[in-house]
Amino acid sequence: MRFPGAEEYAYPADPNRMPIPLYGEQVLCISMPRGASTVSNEHVWYYTTIVNAHGNVNNAILPFLQDKTISDRDYGIDPIVKTGIGKVPEQLSFEEQDIVYIQPFQGDINFPDRFGSILRFSSTHLTRDISHYKHKPFWNGTRKGDPFVALTCGVKESRSGASADKYYAIENPEEDSAFIYLSSSQKFNKFRLAQKNVGKKVQKLNVYDRPQVIIGSDRLVFNARKDEIVLVAKKDVKIATPAWQADMDEFFTQMLKLIEEVIKQNKNLEAAHTEIGKVAQSTAASTHPTGVGVTGTPTNVDMFVASKGKSTANVATTKSIRSKIEKIKSVINKMKQ
After folding, report:
1. pTM of the full predicted structure?
2. Would you say residue 296 has pLDDT above 60?
3. Three state DSSP letters for 154-222
């Protein structure tokens, strides 16, 4: 921090909110007792907020304040870019961008950043009350003042430049990079889901007007490193993909019915194999009378013995398959509420 004739270190005044000023920005400073001091009257400087020097959300750099060598103070058409004599302020990693302010609404408490993201604490604004705003809210409702919270990373319209012409941008759930919405009674007209069919009896977002949480991005990753991911629903869990849409409650109910039918048919098949085996064994051991007397066991006895062995093997296979299916049935039964 530079004072007239001296430079001092200044620390963030709020340990839970640390705006990092750029080289050349002005901040409000206060002198307070040093917490680690063991003597009285030892003070240090703390800074609070960045001064909004240009009405520019991306930066508030005053290029000539930090460079005492400047003699030509011609700001030209762009006060952010130093046009006079002296070195350009050296930022460590920051690059200037044309970021458009995001539309505030009366009563909002908003925290926009330099890069086109925003944490918005807002509420429902009725249609009759918003005619004077450049951009209308992307949410709507019927009860004025109901709370609404939105965290948006990368508002596309805000990051598209032309701030002098646009003046304000607004969030768009169909275009912004990532977002989380916490609603109390709000509905969303401009919101396209990734799949058209998302399950039976699912109210659309422009109809549902009860509390909900909406998360959106190109990809969602839920990574429980040491414990479960728990999905619990009073009514049902819906899953929709390009090829399938499934209502979990109905899916497992129908799956259980199918498994029970397969087990029933499996038992019938086992009984059939057992019966075939008995017939083959009986036929292989029996004698066959002819016109001139008893001839003894049939000449194709080996075929009957082989049939008996095959039937026995089929019975074993059928039992094995049924055992596996019954295990699946047991698991599904345990899932039932």
Report:
1. 0.71
2. no
3. CCCCHHHCCHHHHCCECCCCCCCCEEEEEECCCECCCCCCCCCCCCCCCCCCCCCCCCEEEEEECCCCC
